[in-house]
Amino acid sequence: MEEIYAKFVSQKISKTRWRPLPPGSLQTAETFATGSWDNEENYVSLWSIGDFENLDSDGGFEGDHQLLCDIRHHGDIMDLQFFDQERIVTASSTGCVTVFLHHPNNQTLSVNQQWTTAHYHTGPSSPSYSSAPCTGIVCNNPEIVTVGEDGRINLFRADHKEAVRTIDNADSSTLHAVTFLRTPEILTVNSIGQLKIWDFRQQGNEPSQILSLTGDRVPLHCVDRHPNQQHVVATGGQDGMLSIWDVRQGTMPVSLLKAHEAENRVSLLSMLECNGTISAHHSLSFPGSSSSPASASPMWEVHFHPSNPDHLFTCSEDGSLWHWDASTDVPEKSLLFHQGGRTSTFLSHSISNQANVHQSVISSWLSTDPAKDRIEITSLLPSRTLSVNSLDVLGPCLVCGTDAEAIYVTRHLFS
Amino acid sequence: MEELDGEPTVTLIPGVNSKKHQMCFDWGPGEMLVCETSFNKKEKSEVVPSCPFIYIIRKDVDVYSQVLRKLFNESHGIFVGLQRIEEELTGKSRKSQLVRVSKNYRSVIRACMEEMHQVAIAAKDPASGRQFSSQVSILSAMELIWNLCEILFIEVAPAGPLLLHLLDWVRLHVCEVDSLSADVLGSENPSKHESFWNLVTILVLQGRLDEARQMLSKEADTSPTSAGMCRIMGELMRTMPILSPGNTQTLTELELKWQHWHEECERYLQDCTFASNPHLESLCKIMLGDEAALLEQKELLSNWYHFLVTRLLYSNPTVKPIDLQYYAQSSLDLFLGGESSPEPLDNILMAAFEFDIHQVIKECSIALSNWWFVAHLTDLLDHCKLLQSHNLYFGSNMRECLLLEYASGLFAHPSLWQLGVDYFDYCPELGRVSLELHIERIPLNTEQKALKVLRICEQRQMTEQVRSICKILAMKAVRNNRLGSALSWSIRAKDAAFATLVSDRFLRDYCERGCFSDLDLIDNLGPAMMLSDRLTFLGKYREFHRVYGEKRFADAASLLLSLMTSQIAPRSFWMTLLTDALPLLEQKQVIFSAEQTYELMQCLEDLTSGRPVHGGPDTQQCQDDDIETTKVEMLRLALARNLARAIVREGSLEGF
């Protein structure tokens, strides 16, 4: 395992995203964008991790990523997505949604398009507006969907001045994240633990489906859809729990995986230090049986690996970044990870009382067969301090950003 | 009150004329507000328009430096790591760990210094360039002091290795020699380079004798006349006994060998071996530790601590730590030669040589413009168990006091406050109260930020702060007409009063609009419903509607009745509930039993009899009353009919 390169950048990083590669490209990722938050002045920045060929000829390799350009951003950057190769869409705490355009010729960023009051509150009596933070965006050229603390969902189209569709009061609580399920369906998660599916073909402001964990209303912060199996969805919550859902089956998650929880990690790490070997470790645990929420840390982002979806990545407020490996050839791999000097752990994998799903291709994430029921978790960052707010994976590259004002990059995820 | 250590510095605020106008001010954490008042002592008639601004004076400006932010963030990780390794280690491994931590801190300072240097070079206007350059020299001084403290207090190097460490220290900080060396060696004929002898001298002054020897061999190659002398000098350099880390020889052995070598040097000087070459002769004198010869090289030594270390190298290589201070003091005096007085840096280094840690920290606190340095150094020294005895006159010890000061500075910054939390955590006495006071003052502009602050409070069981933050968010949500959010936050805060208030708003909205909003939340309250009676009522009332909608009339009826009889429903809502009972009473089949109907009647009578008799001329009131009276009449009628049907039905059922 190659080193993860860290760079301190003098701003708290809220979002990191790889620039997508052109279709059919054989290159690896080399440019990513970051957004900052909670600074007096916030910036959208574009970074390069350098040119491969030049460095190879030197024999040496500068691990640092270099700033290409940046532009000031009004308010905290709550979410950031690449719209296409040149355009970046940001969500602001001021409720504004902005499209930035990158000019590669002179390495500058400029504002391309802006919806200034995409998200807002209306006062109880007066018609006065106050801005509401926009918390999440998802792009699918030419469409942009945004959600916010105002419980509103907007559907924008690039080059259209007004929203194409707005669902007011879509949610009574705060919407935290959004993703496309299959066009024109989207999926939102909210602060009372619900997963809602919306179909833009339907009129009215009711979701077509609501999924939730029973009872405890633990906020969900992030959501990602399996790249190949569109019914498989992963969410991360305030209690640090990773939930895998099959949106076709019932209203409950298929499996719950305890993660990012202080006590749990300590015990497992110590187990590892004692005997040095790893054995599959199964135990059933149901929501509610987890320890007090105070000890758990919110999971801020979850991402399936886009081209290798048996791998999943999560990051958390406790400053950890985890690699979840559900591929079947784990035993051989575990050795390799050990040599890399990283900490590897198995965590309990619990299954809700769902009947076995019959499908032609069973995703490893939905599998309930105990023999296959193995997930290896690797912690990717050397030491934990402040929150890891965001991560992104593309090919063998991973980037993440923290409240400790550092950006970490690795280009050899699976080596 | 202790006496002042120096005159406080005067800061002039541009644009404010304190001679003409009375000033007023107010303290904040790390900041101060200053403005002019319109109060005028003498000329009462003349009102001079005063300055319309309020100035924010920041004490700790370094916190706002982009480059230093990296220092704060990176060192935060080291600090937290240091607090965690604390307990388990003892003895040697503990010392090596502490030295490693100290080196980590220094490498962060150095990285920061290099970056600041780049920024200074790239600076567009000379003024900011100068500012950055001065920051570079401050950082460099910080690293110099830290390094010395590391050698003396953390490494606690004994006689022998002590000098080796000091030599490394000097080599690291007087590093112009490397560029000079490259310059000379890069030239066509190194030995004819104008700085050739300067270079050789510096190498000797720094004890880099191998490199000096190589230089001399170049001279020997080009000028046959001095080749012999150079060879002898080279031999002297080669044979100088030094303590190598892996060597097992004792100090006494070394001292003996060194004495022999010293005498040999002395002999060559007496013999006038080098008399024909003044450069070589001066080198020989330096190697004999001759003070006058050393002082002739003032320019090359550049400072008194270099002089000190070179002097010790060639006169007393096995100096004991305890004797350092005498050499240091005399070196300082000799070097300055009464021409100039010592500067703050000199005083700090001198205090370190005197092993007076408290003086070092005190002088640093006065001289440096930020608390980062003293806070981290003191903490590290405290972990070396060097500060145990010292208590300040105001409660906490020095380590804690400095950490609190530093952390408060971080909290005054709009973005670095997260770092401050961990520093407060490791202040056992006043850390928690400080955190409590500071954390409540963090502006919460988004829920995500609020969640981060909440987690900090929840992890530390700061229930009061958790409640207050949730309340702030609930209030905000109410103001923004986000009742669902408001209810979620008040449930999280377990704030029954606020949950009641929000529930009332929901019920009022229902009465106005005839339908519920935010069903996704209300339908999923679960046990949280028990937080307040009103919330329970809201949840149960909604449940009634759902059951009714599902046409489970019997369940709906008993639920409705229980809401009134159990006194959960507020009196003001009873009429609405009774009206809701009307369609159930009018159903074809009998839903309310006779007993239930009696209870409903009882409720209606309770409600109507409690009403005050009024006789106001208000027409609106009369109209309302009319509607109300009609409603009551209708209810009575429906109840009476239902009772009749129920009695008949129950009677006939009994007959079967």
Question: In words, what does this structure look like?
Answer:
The complex is a heterodimer of chains A (415) and B (656). Chain A has 415 residues and is mainly β. Helix content of chain A is 7%, strand content 42%. By secondary structure, chain B is mainly α. In chain B, a hairpin with a 3-residue loop joins strand 1 and strand 2 (31-36). Among the domains of chain B are: 22-59, no CATH class; 169-319, no CATH class; 443-550, no CATH class; 565-610 and 621-655. Chain B has 30 helices and three strands. Chain B is elongated, with a radius of gyration of 42 Å.
Brief characterization of the structure:
With 415 residues, chain A is mainly beta. Helix content of chain A is 7%, strand content 42%.
The number of distinct helices of chain A, counting runs of at least 4 residues, comes to 3
Please tell me what the overall shape of chain B is.
elongated
Distance between the termini of chain B: 99 Å
Low-confidence stretches of chain A: 52-61, 262-294, 330-361
Q: How many beta-strand segments of chain B? A: 3
Within the largest sheet of chain A, what's the order of strands? 20-21-22-23-28
* Beta-strand content estimate of chain B: under 5%
Structural class of chain B: mainly alpha
Largest interface, counted by CB within 8 Å of the partner chain's CB: A-B, 55 and 45 residues
Topology, please?
The complex is a heterodimer of chains A (415) and B (656).
Chain A: E1 5-8, E2 13-18, E3 31-36, E4 42-48, H1 52-58, E5 66-73, E6 77-82, E7 87-92, E8 97-103, E9 108-115, E10 120-122, E11 129-131, E12 134-140, E13 143-148, E14 153-157, E15 165-167, E16 175-180, E17 185-190, E18 194-199, E19 209-212, E20 220-225, E21 232-237, E22 241-246, E23 255-258, H2 262-275, E24 299-304, E25 311-316, E26 321-325, H3 330-339, E27 344-346, E28 349-351, E29 376-379, E30 388-394, E31 397-402, E32 406-410
Antiparallel strand pairs in A: 1-32, 2-3, 3-4, 4-5, 6-7, 7-8, 8-9, 10-11, 12-13, 13-14, 14-15, 16-17, 17-18, 18-19, 20-21, 21-22, 22-23, 23-28, 24-25, 25-26, 26-29, 27-29, 30-31, 31-32
Chain B: E1 23-27, E2 31-36, E3 54-58, H1 66-85, H2 91-122, H3 126-154, H4 161-173, H5 176-186, H6 196-205, H7 209-222, H8 224-239, H9 251-270, H10 278-287, H11 291-296, H12 298-301, H13 304-315, H14 324-336, H15 344-353, H16 357-367, H17 372-383, H18 398-412, H19 417-425, H20 431-439, H21 447-459, H22 463-479, H23 483-492, H24 496-513, H25 519-522, H26 533-549, H27 553-565, H28 574-585, H29 594-609, H30 619-655
Antiparallel strand pairs in B: 1-2, 2-3
Helix pairs in contact in B: 1-2, 2-3, 3-4, 3-15, 4-13, 5-6, 6-7, 6-10, 7-8, 9-10, 13-14, 15-16, 17-18, 18-19, 18-20, 19-20, 21-22, 22-23, 23-24, 24-26, 26-27, 27-28, 27-29, 28-30, 29-30
